[in-house]
Amino acid sequence: MTQRGARTSAAGPAALPAPAQIDRCRRCDLWRRATQGVAGEGAARADIVVVGEQPGDSEDRVGRPFVGPAGRLLDQLLLEAGLKRSEVFVTNAVKHFKWELRGKRRLHRRPTAGEIDACHFWLEREILAIQPRVVIALGASAARSVLGRTTSIDAARGRALGQPGGARIFVTYHPSAVLRADAAAARLRSLLVQDLKRAAQALVNPGRT
Fold first, then answer.
1. Which of 2, 119, 131, 157 counts the highest number of beta carbons within 10 A?
2. What tens digit of pLDDT does each residue of 106-120 get?
3. 7 domain-assigned
4. Does residue 45 lie within any of the structural domains?
5. What was the pLDDT predicted at 206?
6. pTM of structure
């Protein structure tokens, strides 16, 4: 990912990609079965950007990120970590919904590395426009897009990553993992909140994460 340092530059801030631009994207084939592309949303100069995997069924229909069950849980977890949804920018590594039909339901399918890499163009433009101090990657697909390489959540979480002078990167679980976890849900939820708190603390004490 392009290095982020100062929040302004001599050329001025970059512009966020418009939803219509993302909707018209043909960098991979996911647009063919999606209802629409889903751009990120939130504070245009947010200190924190939260990156998920891809739109889900609700997001695909509404055209907004994190409005389904995982999004509602994310709102709760952010509050528990001392953050507000209105103060951050939320987006996804992949902007079109990848799904398979089971019965009458459209269920999520994990995007491939090629699809994540093709869509990185848009995430990078969002990051350049916002110039956040912290980026939180929710799940392995988001981590690949943000870090530029494949990594496991367990190997990457628990510490700040990134380059000197750029945004500090935190990798943690996706809220959907909590929703699917059954017996392990309470543990995953606790770890996710810990990681969100660690990311929030990086804004206050950058040297202590």
1. 119
2. 999 999 999 999 999
3. no
4. yes
5. 67
6. 0.92
